[in-house]
Structures
1.
Amino acid sequence: MSAEGFREELLSAGLLADGGLAGVYHRSFEFERVAVAVGAYVSRAGRGEASRRLYLGPVQARTTLEGSGYVTSFPNLVGVVSSFAGTESDVPAFLEELEAGVDWTDRLAPTDIALCSAGCHPIYPLVAGTTLPDAGERVEVQTWCFRHEPSPDPARMQTFRQHEFVYLGSADGAVDHRDRWLEQGRELLGALGLEVSAVVANDPFFGRTGRLLAANQRTKELKFELVAPISSATPGAISSANYHEDHFGDAFDIRTADGQAAHTACIGFGLERIALSLFLRHGLRDEAWPSEVRTRLALDVDEEVR
Amino acid sequence: MSAEGFREELLSAGLLADGGLAGVYHRSFEFERVAVAVGAYVSRAGRGEASRRLYLGPVQARTTLEGSGYVTSFPNLVGVVSSFAGTESDVPAFLEELEAGVDWTDRLAPTDIALCSAGCHPIYPLVAGTTLPDAGERVEVQTWCFRHEPSPDPARMQTFRQHEFVYLGSADGAVDHRDRWLEQGRELLGALGLEVSAVVANDPFFGRTGRLLAANQRTKELKFELVAPISSATPGAISSANYHEDHFGDAFDIRTADGQAAHTACIGFGLERIALSLFLRHGLRDEAWPSEVRTRLALDVDEEVR
């Protein structure tokens, strides 16, 4: 099965609807129920761990995109919200232009709002300029992310959700969080019948400097991905476990009790990709999935209320 | 209680977290559980009605923003996604600019992606150029919407969800759909203990032409709102029931069997606003809400899985 073939099957079965642009989809209630159930499943596994639990997005302050270094590393992927910059007196001319078919987007100007880049980024401004408790801090988030990378592969949507567990504190604590969750993530996803492997990985840093950053990330083994077939036999990342060293602690002035920049780590579970993996593995009708998988995802309980 | 006072209470109680910009918030798991439960509650009330059920967004094709007439009527509210327009060879100069603190947004160009404007808009392109069945078509959608209108009032978030029931078909069918759902919506929301009234309303059309459109909408009684206290004693819209005449049928070439442009209608329930209304009415701890309200919203069932 090719990714394009699987895409056609998903559209024919009505699990996804074509949003009219590459990588933009509407989701059926059935698809959504599975994606939401995956988020709840990993959330239950981390119950009691986080001191703060938040749903983020789909937008964030543009300053977060800048402060996190995301713009520098991934300029090609960012999304900034632009809106009409004029006042009421500009409207008549604007409407005339629209009528005449002139490109109206010239009238737009970037706002201070951006789409969320990664699950954990909006967390850091919330604790910027503070000193963390001795044990560090753990935050659970679910975030709508945006990446401007149109693709015919349904595994690469332009908007998708990440369910994340984030740690902020010491270097040892961060590595421990990353490694523990990588193992727990592998067990959780394997228990859903997925063929999961952990691999060293790198972020898709842009350009020539980016290639150096990516190589460095691999050498230091900062990023691991849990990969499985998503939309074809070729495995792709359904989860990613990252140690950021003191990158965000430094960028957002988050300190540990000893005055050092905090080290951070996160694991993110890609809800849409895991849902796709499950549909690929177990079939397009979730009612026919192995009962153990349905039970783990509490799909029957969920069906009562939704 | 003023809207600003209620905002402070919501932030102090941790139900919302400040996203760093007016009208941009993160939501606690408790707030989210209530908002999601409201969507499921209205969805159960409409069970069996819609032939198609979709979760949309948070982005849509920019052409939908144009085709729906939204840009013309509400240029001040639109959100278009801009991204880096350069290639790899532009990156060094771009990074130098960033380093030098030059406004990097000059490097952005509008993409073909927009944030969703209203719950029902992305539906119309899905049936554009088709002839509807005799009985018309009914669609249920939940959509992340964006409105660029920063405000200190938590009732006016820049991103929020609408849960909608949309009808496409005859003029009589559309009016009937709108009126039936307006009554059902009033009952559903009243049964949650909210003090709900139905009022004739108009959309916030922009500019001088906009004021004429708004007056016309009121005269023809095309738009009704269900209003209730949201963030203060002053009632605001928590639901909106609209008859669009043949505006969208004409714009997207959607026809009825007799060859006429389809008439459409929708009711939208604002999930964040209804959640806020409930917190204002019953208190900030949903565990202490009247058991009848918790039962109707299936909050206890939901707590088992989330």
2.
Amino acid sequence: MVNLVNLGSVALDTVKTPFGEVKETIGGSGVYFSLGASFFTKPGLISVVGRDFPKTCLNLLEKKGVCLKGVRFSEKKTLRWHAYYEYDMNEAHTVKLEAEIFEDFGLDIPEDYRDAKYVFLGNIDPEIQIEMLERMKNPKFSVLDSMNYWIEKKRSKVLKAIGMVDMLLLNEAEIRELFKTPNFVSAAKKALSKGPKFVLVKKGEHGAVLFSDGVYFFTPGYPLETVKDPTGAGDSFAGGFLGWVAKTDNISEVNLRKAVVYGSVIASYNAEDFSINKLKKLNETDIKRRYQEFKKLVYF
Amino acid sequence: MVNLVNLGSVALDTVKTPFGEVKETIGGSGVYFSLGASFFTKPGLISVVGRDFPKTCLNLLEKKGVCLKGVRFSEKKTLRWHAYYEYDMNEAHTVKLEAEIFEDFGLDIPEDYRDAKYVFLGNIDPEIQIEMLERMKNPKFSVLDSMNYWIEKKRSKVLKAIGMVDMLLLNEAEIRELFKTPNFVSAAKKALSKGPKFVLVKKGEHGAVLFSDGVYFFTPGYPLETVKDPTGAGDSFAGGFLGWVAKTDNISEVNLRKAVVYGSVIASYNAEDFSINKLKKLNETDIKRRYQEFKKLVYF
């Protein structure tokens, strides 16, 4: 049974950073999210890929326990993203995005996904996010991601979608832009007033902050000496977070704090190598070890 | 007896931020450091001011328990700094710096300062920092601050001074510049290899990280909704840090972790109002309360 469903992209990424490059390698928000979650639960992915997408990559995802029943095949080319990072690796510079496959995107939710308790609405057109929420039977905990593109094009729809979910997940610049304030704490409070019980703000290498009524919880970024490629950090973070929540089936604040740390553990490993190279080799012992390191990192 | 001595400036600041402005108000690294430390111990300041510096300001510092025996009066004008901040308040833009008083700076260490166990070498010419260290009798724990100006002009002297102290305190951009690496974790490790047992990296609103052999300790910035003026954040942080260390007379790693949090508490309060307006009203209860909030902020 699929207990956690996520909506996201499957892509072929060409990425260059000061520490190397990869060409047409597996990527996409849905891939990073699903892999992040796969360490804790069996996530179901809703996406679309072209017939040019390597079978070996799909096999790998299935071997990791990702359910691909919700992935539709299209005659168009798989999403391709070409980008580079400079020494300040907080920002990806997009060279080219070939996204014609999304013209072909129809929301196809397999029947046995519709009972899932946990739902992640990856960054996509907010109207599709709303439609998906409406078609899920009775999710216990839903999380919405978005980005500046949608905030600028369809702000009122983004706000409507936010009003329908249990948690909003945005990065710091996005939430400040959405609520038109330079202060992310004020922005998070405004977001809470729109309906979600929790707001989780991603601060890239600086960590993440969870907000709820009267609650702040801060997790730092893990102090990495080797950051080869930050691609997928935010999505694998979300996957680790929601994978832990789905596994434990517990949405108390105390458990969400742990989930934020598990998300940070996954995201920190992800950045240590290109594409999914690190995540595909990661095991439970690695995850537990770094989780304990996070405790030592903040304990006083 | 003065147990903690610091070398720093006393200035008249004119500062504008998106939230207001102040003109010719009390400022300077030595003032912020001393006030931050004054909540925990009686710090001794080494500095120089002009005769134009308001008596009321000196009286205020003395009332807060700051020893001014090491402050020399000069016939030149007090240091004046004129700056503004934009919405991203991590960076101060200097409009004008009137620093002729430093032509008149001679290192005058009162005899009873020379026994102090704790020494803070504020950001100044590294040759003066070295001279001061040589003239202290036998400090138990010395901390060195610096800045990009000295790193660029006198790198080898800065490195020499670093080799003489117990802890290096720099902000993230500075330590990356000093050790010519984009990664602050690598930079901190390189700094440790130069001699200091501890390296403390300030990350502005993103907090601070303490490094020692095999040790990382991270404290986030306190999530403030109101940041009126970040001037003095780094110096009041250092003052709170070293004030706590001097008060407890304990330089174990466990105690330094607590000191980093106390420094963060002081710095977060400092940013809530212009100049020293918040610090001068702060009491022990405020400090204890926010220290506990820091525990809740990171606990999982």
3.
Amino acid sequence: MDTKPKDKCAVFGIISGDDVFNSIYYGLYAMQHRGQESAGIATYTGRINIHRDMGLVSDVFKNTYFSGNSGIGHVRYSTTGESSSRNAQPLLINYSMGSFAIAHNGNITNTSELKYLLEHRGSIFTTTTDTEIIAQLIAQEHIKTNDFVLGIKNAMEYLEGAYCLTILYGRKVIAVRDPWGLRPLVFGKGETTYAVASESCALDVLDLKLVRDVKPSEILVIDENGIKSVMGKKQKPAHCMFEYVYFSRADSIINERSVYEIRRKLGRNLLHESEVDADLVVPVPDSGITAAVGYSEDSNIPFGEALMKNRYIGRTFIMPEQDDRELGVRLKLNPILSEIKGREIVLIDDSLVRGNTTRRLIKILRKSGVGKIHVRISCPPIRSPCPYGIDMQTTKEFIASKKTVDEIRNIIDADSLVYISLEGLIDAIGIPEEKLCLGCLTGKYPIKEKKQLKLEG
Amino acid sequence: MDTKPKDKCAVFGIISGDDVFNSIYYGLYAMQHRGQESAGIATYTGRINIHRDMGLVSDVFKNTYFSGNSGIGHVRYSTTGESSSRNAQPLLINYSMGSFAIAHNGNITNTSELKYLLEHRGSIFTTTTDTEIIAQLIAQEHIKTNDFVLGIKNAMEYLEGAYCLTILYGRKVIAVRDPWGLRPLVFGKGETTYAVASESCALDVLDLKLVRDVKPSEILVIDENGIKSVMGKKQKPAHCMFEYVYFSRADSIINERSVYEIRRKLGRNLLHESEVDADLVVPVPDSGITAAVGYSEDSNIPFGEALMKNRYIGRTFIMPEQDDRELGVRLKLNPILSEIKGREIVLIDDSLVRGNTTRRLIKILRKSGVGKIHVRISCPPIRSPCPYGIDMQTTKEFIASKKTVDEIRNIIDADSLVYISLEGLIDAIGIPEEKLCLGCLTGKYPIKEKKQLKLEG
Amino acid sequence: MDTKPKDKCAVFGIISGDDVFNSIYYGLYAMQHRGQESAGIATYTGRINIHRDMGLVSDVFKNTYFSGNSGIGHVRYSTTGESSSRNAQPLLINYSMGSFAIAHNGNITNTSELKYLLEHRGSIFTTTTDTEIIAQLIAQEHIKTNDFVLGIKNAMEYLEGAYCLTILYGRKVIAVRDPWGLRPLVFGKGETTYAVASESCALDVLDLKLVRDVKPSEILVIDENGIKSVMGKKQKPAHCMFEYVYFSRADSIINERSVYEIRRKLGRNLLHESEVDADLVVPVPDSGITAAVGYSEDSNIPFGEALMKNRYIGRTFIMPEQDDRELGVRLKLNPILSEIKGREIVLIDDSLVRGNTTRRLIKILRKSGVGKIHVRISCPPIRSPCPYGIDMQTTKEFIASKKTVDEIRNIIDADSLVYISLEGLIDAIGIPEEKLCLGCLTGKYPIKEKKQLKLEG
Amino acid sequence: MDTKPKDKCAVFGIISGDDVFNSIYYGLYAMQHRGQESAGIATYTGRINIHRDMGLVSDVFKNTYFSGNSGIGHVRYSTTGESSSRNAQPLLINYSMGSFAIAHNGNITNTSELKYLLEHRGSIFTTTTDTEIIAQLIAQEHIKTNDFVLGIKNAMEYLEGAYCLTILYGRKVIAVRDPWGLRPLVFGKGETTYAVASESCALDVLDLKLVRDVKPSEILVIDENGIKSVMGKKQKPAHCMFEYVYFSRADSIINERSVYEIRRKLGRNLLHESEVDADLVVPVPDSGITAAVGYSEDSNIPFGEALMKNRYIGRTFIMPEQDDRELGVRLKLNPILSEIKGREIVLIDDSLVRGNTTRRLIKILRKSGVGKIHVRISCPPIRSPCPYGIDMQTTKEFIASKKTVDEIRNIIDADSLVYISLEGLIDAIGIPEEKLCLGCLTGKYPIKEKKQLKLEG
């Protein structure tokens, strides 16, 4: 419940025997947790129909509908560039070879080089998103090669960073995942339907069967006859560990692993690394619940839902002044007095970024007469920024980047504080360390060398 | 998660050394679960300042503020009468003796008699709420007796049904609870603050100490010097059991009992009445969670959060057509496949009103390859309507009013179905049966005889 | 174009062979100039259907429709009482004899006495409008007499001031005009339709034929079989002169006189009282145009539309700061340089209340290099407040209440200033002086003595 | 009042010693008649600040303000391309040489060639406006020449059609007018302020002095030190006659000619070409008023404002069904019965495009008992579409393209119908025929030959 990093976007794509608008709408809705700032849908009916605006899916599309058997969609939290309806996606591109719509989840790390390259080839930009950079590259390579898919493949050679794309090109839907597989992208099907989505929960809502992940480096071309796979140049995979720890919905399956199972295992591993004698395992809702279940399960300490969450936070809610942030926490969370009074608790949270909220929460718990408070965090200390699409930009915001664990324990006023170990994290995820991106924990990032850009423009 | 009865309103009142507007705002916000249709605040600054409109607290008050050291507030789900801003509360009354603002939670059962009585005394009504009836009675009795509090006391002699009132009369805040104590109303204080609220969670958010319940029949008069208690004619208490089972927030304490503890005990009692061999205890979120924790605790079956809830249901969300209500359930709840595949589960819900949602949910679970499904309900079968302010008006809507438990089990397609017994419910609540209102379960209502109304107008 | 007094409300009523909702909508729309703050419609279909809210007709009813062959409507500028949706009309009344909806244009002058009377009979009020007072009186007299129309007739005995009412009582529409006939109310019919409206332009829009005025003191009861007229106690008529001078639409016919013809005659009379040698007659648009046409017509000075009005003033327009009110005028009006440069003009306006706008306008005209400016006002100096429903409440706001004409000429910096004489005004209107209300000009009001109210409650 | 062609956009630019935001806001507001669909403002404060959205100026900027001593603005009616917030202007461009904001009024006629050219140079487009085409050309030519102003000059060599541009480049504001001078663009100054605007009324509102037109082919570079003029390749001027007849505000001065004076002269010329014996000259408000004044002036027939206009048309107004379009006209215009009954009238309108509204209006007038109706139109018959930015796209919509004047007279049921002659029009405007664009009247367009585009990309 600590101030959480915010994810940036989800993408969706679908081809069906029926109109796809509602399916895109429901699919985006299932992934609304990945972006509440803007939403957009494009479908194809001989031409590309498109609508995108600021707001939740339900607000943006309350009066809009278009037909079409294939289409893509996008929700965005925020992104590089000005926060305005102009940057809502999908982006619609017109150029000498025709037109396409494109939606992007991720963050490109070599944008300044690419922008420089493209600008020196003569490109001009009308948005400030890296999506426009990707689109310009694809369009240029399409022009060069006269083959759209080859154009995408060539464009991928320039791109560094995280990108899951859905592209609507004529009737086709094309899904692209970066060579590192940083962000999730899955493929599913139904009787007459093929779909791709950032998370499998968007397939579940449409009663589609999850078939497999879109592979790192893969360009998956979908039309009414089925799928065709083209592989770009490979890199060593580097799946983002934070998708498992916090971002993705627990009911999603990413890289063939159940997020829920991983979170429960995180709780179990955390227990074994930091067993303590206590009366109750208390999760910080909602995101700490699954790890707390796992923690309790292997111990003899019962699980208790001793912090109640208010579910009605509205957009226009008037928050308390700076000098009463404790009230800000109480407005969201309220302890069950009878559960915690005089009892030692294990407080489980999934991460601890700045530490302010946890500090205030513990103050409230102490006022309530709790016994000892043992804080357990199901993610190792976050110390470095994420360049791949998660809203943690500077080390200044990480309490763990300058403080020791004991200093943090002191700041938040816990009786004990244990973070899960890197080994415990990796073991729970069940993917070898070399195939994970652990950059925000270790400072070691998977994308090292940069392709030397030739200026040819 | 079955289609739930909806509660009707919360009231709030406060006197403080400081401006009270924000405290009312936060207090109402903490009770937003009791009413999302309209909100209103009145304060006193020599005159009564008032604003009320349709919408959530955060929407209604995004551009409004008034000063004042005393005030009342109200949120409403719906009420008798047209659903319009005209019926938003508090209601402001002007009459020969001055003016007051009044907010009401509950439902009066003898409104037609009272309306008849008042109309024959010459009253005319400009709203269709029973709040206006209460207000007219109070005003008339005030005129007769020349004493406002005595006027309230006399008015109470006429009123049958559930009513918790907060009244702003000059600088004073007056809290009134019906003689049966059907709905909750609590009193709390801080250093320079006195407050009353429908639920104690509204006191917690303001860091006020819960002192006690407003007693059944009590008129609690609060001014800056403290409280004065006047008792109206007593009746045998009849506390609503459904406040414990479903309505109130789990972190509230009502009639000196922790809602959370009662719900956990309901789970434990349910276990002992219906033990079954299974692999996982699965709550229907959010309301089934606490009972599921209790059920798991005393058994050797682990608790699992195997149904994930989407938290982003918007007001303007386009729901699927009639013929795909299963999608409607999937949009709200998604099972964790890895948790339930091939496993026997105990599915815990807090009530089962119409049964449609549970039927669809079980269909989805069966498609997911679950093993057996044992449904356990932490409330006995609801068979009769509630005349006291809960939105269950006709027996037609209760599946249990015409079907046996086994027929219901068959309809929802569960492998077994057990409701908690009346005894198990009463034991968990810990209040003697004769002091509870169990009308919706037994058809026996606490308010029997009606005062014969004299027409004098 | 000087800061104008604002009128307060229009009423409408209709019975037809078809649904009347759209006709009420269009009728109110035609009278939108009489009130832009709120709008409401009520129709009868066995029960009364009602919707009313803040905003223009087109906003309030963009998503609302109900059937019904009879109904009433209302637009309001503002009124006594808080400016909120709660005070939007029609008002819906329930009492022992049934229910009715009521809409009111005008202002009652003895409200405090009536409120005192009614409160001492035991009434309580839930709005702060005088409409509720009228409604309570009607309901009480209905109860006493057991005859609705007689109840209205008796209630009128208590009422002093201006009131045009439309009442929906069962299927019937009842129109009432105060004994002084202060505000306009007309009756019209079509093939299967009877309608009443504050102004005849609302009949025109529906292609209905204007039959006659509702007479002062008249209660006109309309049902599907036709009309029945009941006369209340008569008073000497006192038609508001300002309806002719400014308020009503020029295309309306009031008290059998064309507003347009009167305004043109005002211009002609003004010419004859104040002839001057000039090059151009320039109206202050829009309200000065007709008088300017009349002024030019009888003179040899051509009419010129030399001030252009911007028609796009929006509700949320950010007006210039206090220190640049001249810009405020330029945003609304812009002179045609080529028309006025070096020329003497006669500037025609229909009234001059505070004088600020005229002063600023003349400053702008002088900067444009105009020659002499002769201001001619087609209404005598306004010196006294209007108690009968026009928003001119205190003498402080009238420049003419403390200044001589020559002082005013000096303040506004005109080369000459002439107001039409009282005689010229009366002659143009063509109604004998004793049948006009000239209170705001003379300080002599038509309603002198007050009925002594008996307290009987 | 006939269904009018709609203009497309206004541009504004300003540099001042003070913040310019409010000046741009007021300037755009004064030109709101040229575009109500979207509005945008950009200012410079070391970086370009920009906001643009759908809606009126007052709505788009109700909560927005930025500082900056130079800036540009834009209002749009509609344009080529999708009608969405994405196409709102100014457009913000980033490229290798930096960035600029650009606003455009007009329409480019060789867009497909230019798009083909640019796409084959490798450009991709993210909007569907011709403004993006202009911007891409300027950016490319800037890159080639390394000189921004020279870049604009070179870009102009490619552009055909109508374009008035304001460009914000660093602190500089640059105004550009196409070589034909099709659309208006004026330059004005104050003490510390320089401004350019589509119409001089936007200068008036800010109390700036109109200095001169921006000349056809001129690039006017403005910074805090004053102006610098660069001339592009010249063409024979071709000023749009419809700006004088209908589009521009009557208080504007365009190409050194007063729109008001021209309209009055049109009325006078029309009289002399079509004198008739009648009782009253009646304008169709608002746009027919000035010509009617002129027509009356030279005749002995008085001017009468005998059609009243309702000023409250709202955006969400529910218009009558197809089968009652007569009501649609009555909702906007209402005849003054007393003025027209039994009298012969000359009905003056400024143009007659489709004829439907005029036909319905005459039907209403006939019902009102008017005598003969002589329709006089102050613009010759419109028979051809406008390619230069006015919303008259196909000949199908022009009644005059297939019907003779007598057939039209018959269709609209006038007693006589006379259009002003081409000679009368040209004489009134006072600009030689060869310097006017009369394309929509004659089918002869000023821009004949197209530059052969070299593909070099």
4.
Amino acid sequence: MEQQISMTTLAVPDVAEARRFFEEGLGWTVAAAPSPEVVFFQIVGSIFALYSREALAKEIERPVTEDTTGAFTLAWNARSDEEVDQTFKKAVSAGAKPVKQPEKAFWGGYSSYVEVPGGHLLEIAHNPFWTIDPDGAITIPPEQ
Amino acid sequence: MEQQISMTTLAVPDVAEARRFFEEGLGWTVAAAPSPEVVFFQIVGSIFALYSREALAKEIERPVTEDTTGAFTLAWNARSDEEVDQTFKKAVSAGAKPVKQPEKAFWGGYSSYVEVPGGHLLEIAHNPFWTIDPDGAITIPPEQ
């Protein structure tokens, strides 16, 4: 079993609203949207999806919580503190709610949090200890 | 803003228990564990993390829901239906709860769901329409 997460899926009450945030707000390109209930984005070596909460509940045959705050987070990493500031502003102007303003983080980086449509949290951060390749792949260096 | 999710983080009540599942149960290698509250795994072009629910609540300055079921899912994709069967069994024997047995899925693939320690859902699936590179990177082909 390879060490990989192949897809991260957000269950959202309104797929069209969440799609607009990523597609129009952030400028991401949709790779596929085979039904109104699901949208797929190609990310680096992985897939990011938005999926109707109702459809997910039906698929997994159990209720899906409406409380989407904090039980997990996603992260988007920038290459500098300045890029965190810019991206935080861009996300907020695209419709995300500010949760935590960009600031020096206890772990040595620079971090902020927003709540994206659907209620999920996105950390926008700069981690000077991790490598980001030109293609956006992020790598944890071996422990010193 | 590159189209990328840099890190997927699960907030869990017991980090050591969740770590045991991935490290000992699934055989994954920990890239870094800078404190007892957090564990990082290198995945393909991205990072997967386990994080103390209490520590996350403190960091984001808001309560973190204890209801972790279904508001999102992660996926691990296999290269065949048989590998789905094998991996589902491996996950269950490693301590995951079976949620949905492997079966032909409405979208044309073969899919199962388990609940990993901490309460989050992991889909174990084979999608014959998507490409998995030798290094585990998963790619959505252009729409036909």
